[in-house]
Amino acid sequence: MVQPSTGCDSLARCKPSWYYTQVKKRLAEADAQKGYILVSASCAFRGFVRAGTAFPCAQDGYPRTVQQAKDLAEFQDVQCVVNLSLPDDILVAKLMGRRMCKDCGRNYNVTEIKEAGYEMPPLLPKASDCEQCKGEPNLFTRADDNEETIRSRLQVYKQHTAPVVDFYRGSGVVLDFEVKKGLQDMPRLLDDMGVPQEAR
């Protein structure tokens, strides 16, 4: 199973194409400014089609609207939709704790959650993480990792993305999973998904 993305893997498999040209252009612009890019949903969708993703794969963050879900259904049979849930206050606290290294781009999280059955340790730098940083990364907080912006994004999710879950729930393919321990929940999630040990 693969995880298609708007990154290099999809680029490599659809070169040369309209998608390749558009994303390479955006990447060049971002590189010049040492920033981030957002690839439009239509661009990503056309890239997935051109890359031939009508085979077992995992979609992360797509589809985000009911219309995108309907578009996806035209060429791919969705067998399982994992609906992760977490109380808003805990989610906001975790997102506000995100940090990124300016030098290597690695992600960390300084927030520790221990309340009401939720136990999520911080993800702190280790010397083994990066040969360049050696456990002392140059951390910064993204401008959009503030409470106002995060809560605004949650509202957008509830208005536009949450209906996608209802769309798939009608097909009986939704697996509701409550996150309790962050990454430590992965074995429990794989159990609930019925993934055999040899495939993990």
Q: How would you sum up this structure, described in words?
A:
Strand 4 and strand 5 form a beta hairpin. Residues 1-16 and 31-39 have low confidence and may be disordered. The strands form 3 sheets. The protein has a 3-stranded antiparallel beta sheet with strand order 3-2-6. The chain is of the alpha+beta class and 200 residues long. It has helices at residues 8-14, 18-33, 41-50, 66-73, 88-96, 147-169, 186-193; strands at 81-85, 98-101, 107-109, 113-115, 118-120, 139-140, 174-178.
Count of spatially separate domains: 2
Number of strands: 7
State the helix count.
7
Structural class: alpha+beta
CATH architectural name of the largest domain: 3-Layer(aba) Sandwich
Brief overview:
The protein is of the alpha+beta class and 200 residues long. 40% of the residues lie in helices and 12% in strands.
Write the layout of secondary structure elements.
Elements: H1 8-14, H2 18-33, H3 41-50, H4 66-73, E1 81-85, H5 88-96, E2 98-101, E3 107-109, E4 113-115, E5 118-120, E6 139-140, H6 147-169, E7 174-178, H7 186-193
Parallel strand pairs: 1-7
Antiparallel strand pairs: 2-3, 2-6, 4-5
